[in-house]
Specification:
The complex is a heterodimer of chains A (211) and B (143). Chain A is built from six helices and no strands. Chain A has 211 residues and is mainly alpha-helical. Chain B is mainly alpha-helical and 143 residues long. Chain B has a domain of 48 residues. Classes of the chains: A mainly alpha (211), B mainly alpha (143). Chains A and B meet through helix 1, helix 3 and helix 6 of A and helix 1, helix 2, helix 3 and helix 4 of B.
């Protein structure tokens, strides 16, 4: 194949429209784009849940209204948890770029703790609402609220599971290329959840209380 | 003899392109931020979060629709800040495909959201009987 016998002039520049040789793609070269496309499809799921909230957000069925249920100080603390976890994940990525494994694991652990705080506060809020009789069965407003915020919470839960898995992988295999790629995917996922949360605290909590 | 050689060269070139592409993801500066960009993004998003919470919780501005408008504008600004400083969006990443897919997604999201809200708002207006007696009386007067 590689024999360089006399090539006719001009054949060097001839255009090849397709190649029939089997060739290998280096592992992971399309992973980031593929993961981005997954995030975009996830974005559509959240868009539909936001649309449902927009339609049902005012259907109280004679039940409690958002201004009677939502505790904004708690939501503010929750938002702070997610924001802090975003910047600590950023620091984990920076440490990983500098190939500092210990610092990477440390920042990842801090990110995980913030994520767990966020989940804990959210579950506390949900259990309070349900104890007050304002569960998802009470009205269309509460159904759409629990579906939207709960779906976001589930994403955070899976993000934390993924984070712990990655910490184990990094501590065992080190910051190899495959682990760097995984860290970058989780970085996109984690910051994406933060973007969704901006929509949640604005359109669900703040505008809900104003309603 | 020349045809296979050409094909081989093309494959080699393609491999080179792939290699360069993949090393960009892992080592290149494309998908990475610096410490200062993360801190800038964080400070901006703290400010952009604190303002709407402060406005709603303190109730400084009486007009609720004005507060709602400010909150929505700040949310959109904050989403853009996150996209740039945390998700490292730019026109070049993945040869522009991330931006293309993002624009496509935004178009779909806008169509779905405005469409749902618009249709359901009008359906509520037209199909739901008025709930409070005062407007019901008005309605019967008109009829």
């Amino acid at each position: 194949m590689t024999s360089t016998t006399n090539v006719p002039p001009g054949a060097q520049n001839a255009v090849t429209f397709y190649d029939t040789d089997p060739h290998e793609h280096p592992p992971g070269q399309s992973t980031m784009l593929g993961f981005w496309l997954y995030l975009m499809s996830d974005c559509l799921i959240f868009a539909m849940l936001f649309a449902a909230w927009g339609v049902f957000g005012g259907s109280y069925a004679g039940g409690p209204r958002p201004s009677e249920l939502f505790e904004l100080p708690l939501v503010a603390v929750n938002t702070a948890m997610l924001l802090f976890s975003s910047i600590t994940y950023g620091f984990a990525m920076l440490a990983a770029d500098e190939k500092k494994q210990g610092a990477t694991l440390g920042w990842l652990a801090i990110t995980g703790v913030f994520g767990l705080c966020f989940l804990g506060i959210e579950l506390y809020e949900f259990s309070n609402l349900i104890a007050e009789g304002a569960g998802p069965w009470r009205s269309a407003f509460l159904s759409s609220f629990f579906t939207l915020v709960g779906t976001h919470g589930l994403h955070v839960t899976f993000g934390i599971i993924w984070l712990v898995t990655l910490m184990v992988q990094v501590s065992r295999k080190g910051l190899i290329d495959a682990n760097m790629r995984r860290l970058q995917c989780l970085s996109l996922f984690w910051h994406f959840l933060d973007v969704i949360w901006i929509g949640v605290f604005t359109f669900v909590y703040l505008l809900g209380v104003l309603r | 003899m020349s045809a296979p050689t050409n094909q081989h060269q093309a494959v080699e070139m393609e491999r080179d392109a792939h290699d360069r592409g993949s090393s960009d993801h892992v080592h290149g500066g494309a998908a990475h931020g610096s410490r200062s960009s993360y801190v800038t993004g964080f400070v901006l998003s703290v400010i952009l979060t604190a303002i709407p919470f402060g406005l709603v919780m303190s109730g400084v501005i009486g007009d609720k629709s004005v507060v709602a408008g400010i909150c929505m504008v700040l949310a959109i600004v904050q989403i853009v800040v996150h996209m740039i400083y945390f998700l490292h969006m730019n026109r070049k990443s993945e040869a522009g495909w991330t931006l293309m897919s993002l624009i496509f997604t935004i178009i779909i999201v806008v169509i779905a959201l405005t469409g749902s809200l618009w249709v359901m708002f009008h359906m509520n207006q037209n199909m739901m009987p008025p709930m409070n007696p005062a407007s019901a009386a008005e309605m019967s007067d008109q009829m």
